[in-house]
């Protein structure tokens, strides 16, 4: 049920932001084009200038949402492109409005609403990513990694201590519990997960869930894996 509610909220937010974006784009286009003509620009420039402003906003929004869904923090240059696009749209709308407070406030509203809608949508994408059942969708380690994690002698595996449990069920659960992977195995797993991820790398939360470790260890191992380094010997 929570997943269904999140999906419904995401679709509703996306639809609302799309309506706001289309409205802001149309209003901004007409205002910026009229302003360009008034400033003495050519007919071609008056058409291309609003397209460049709205295109910058659309490109920045696409990158921000993709990074949010992948659990990455958008780059500063992406935010700069978005801010400059929104600022250009806002300035063009206000400059083309009648010189009254009411007219300028009405002209400034679409870009402001678009900026707030983008942040709402990006935040929703991040929350859905954080609550997604990432472990179920992640690929299992390859046979080589599995064999490395089980290279202990047979006698050692057979005599591995089993934690106390209540009855046969507790003993079975303890027997099925897998040991924590070493740093070398964990780095190999992270590289496999990054290679299988559509965005090129998985989030820190997914690494924590896959390895069963804390956030600081997951961040440290991810840095080692993505720099191509080898973990320090224990």
What does this structure look like?
This protein is mainly alpha-helical. The protein has 2 domains: 2-131; 135-227, no CATH class. The protein has 11 helices and no strands. It is elongated.
**What is the global morphology?**
elongated
Q: Helical element count?
A: 11
Protein structure class: mainly alpha
What's the number of domains?
A: 2
Give the SSE string. HHHHHHHHHHH
Task: Please state the CA-atom Rg, rounded to the nearest Å.
Answer: 26 Å
As a percent range, the share of strand residues is: under 5%
Low-pLDDT residue intervals, each spanning 5 or more residues: 133-138, 152-176
Helix content: over 70%
Distance between the termini: 44 Å
- Major β-sheet annotation: none
Care to count the β-strands? 0
On the 0-100 scale, what is the average pLDDT?
A: 74
Descriptive keywords:
mainly alpha; 0% strand
Outline the secondary-structure elements.
Elements: H1 2-38, H2 43-69, H3 76-96, H4 101-131, H5 134-137, H6 143-149, H7 154-158, H8 167-176, H9 183-196, H10 204-211, H11 215-227
